[in-house]
Specification:
The chain is mostly helical and 296 residues long. Helices cover 44% and strands 2% of the residues. It contains eight helices and two strands; from the N terminus they run αααααααββα. Strands 1-2 form a two-stranded parallel sheet. The longest helix is centred in the N-terminal third of the chain and has 29 residues. The relative contact order is 0.16.
Length: 296
């Protein structure tokens, strides 16, 4: 089962401008084949269906703990998209058409369907699909797929990074490049334990280290490229049987941390009256609340 905390995994910068085009690109990192919804659902499904959990506990713990982190990644990408949309229709040139700016956005669903928030779909507005999930039941094959999935996700993050200079998007992508690198290395080490093949020799894909990206480098300076979290106060601790040794880039020791990152504050966006969101008058709402209390 799951416990939820009302935080993001990192603090995001306060947006100084809207960028619906960047939001549309970041959607690929949300609901694309190699997006965070895919990494979450792949690892979560594999953990649900894992056979011989006690016998193969370090591998079960690895997939389970990473799936816990991925749930927070979906939340972080969603918050980024919402931040990029903030203010997109605040300066409409037509008072009779307050959503007119939406016509210039590449994803009309952001304006018509979701009230300028994230969607569970990709950059072309195609909904995320369950057949993106790979769960063969064969441990080596599933781990190999997970390694491939993380490499594909890394490639797409780098491409979206190079499509926008918006600080909110770049901060989020920098963080996910570092954390995705941890997961890639973790799956590589798990495959090495099972097969003896040094999968790490294929890293990184693309062949470009995170220090080339200022935002990612800042997180690496905090040592986050060497930390693997359990995302549980008591369980999944046997990841320390796999996450051992030194990091291949800087040679410093790998670390297992019990629990999760400290996290950052979630943004709280104001009402969008032109979108009828959330759709009630504040005074009317309090009037209803008073009537309900009078009946108690």
């Amino acid at each position: 089962m799951f416990q939820r905390f009302d935080k993001l995994q990192i603090d995001l910068p306060t947006p100084d401008k809207a960028d619906p085009k960047a939001a549309a690109a970041v959607q690929e990192l949300m609901g694309g084949r190699f997006g965070e919804m895919s990494t979450l659902m792949n690892y979560m499904t594999q953990s649900f269906n894992f056979r011989r959990k006690k016998k193969l506990k370090p591998f079960y713990d690895l997939i389970s703990s990473i799936s816990g982190e991925e749930l927070g990644h979906v939340e972080l990408v969603s918050a980024t998209i919402n931040s990029l949309m903030e203010g997109a229709t605040d300066d409409s040139p037509d008072p009779d058409a307050p959503l007119a700016n939406g016509l210039d956005g590449p994803n009309l669903h952001h304006f018509i369907v979701n009230a300028q928030t994230s969607i569970p779909g990709n950059s072309m507005n195609i909904p995320w699909q369950g057949d993106y999930v790979f769960n063969s039941g064969t441990l080596v094959l599933d781990l190999l797929h997970n390694f491939f999935l993380e490499c594909g996700a890394r490639t797409h993050k780098m491409r979206v990074y190079e499509m926008t200079s918006h600080p909110v998007a770049r901060e989020m992508i920098g963080y996910l490049l570092v954390r995705g690198g941890v997961h890639t290395l973790a799956y590589a080490k798990a495959l090495e334990e099972l097969t003896g093949v040094d999968v790490k020799k294929m890293m990184p894909i693309p062949d470009l280290d995170n220090s080339k990206y200022a935002e990612a480098e800042a997180f690496e300076m905090q040592g986050l490229h060497r930390k693997l979290f359990t995302f549980s106060p008591d369980d999944y601790r046997d990841i320390d049987k796999i996450w051992v040794g030194n990091h291949p880039d800087d040679g410093k020791p790998l670390e297992v941390e019990i629990g999760m990152p400290e996290g950052g504050e979630k943004p709280d966006f104001e009402a969008k009256t032109e979108e009828f969101a959330p759709g009630y008058d504040v005074d009317y709402f309090y009037d209803i609340a008073k009537k309900l209390q009078d009946r108690m």
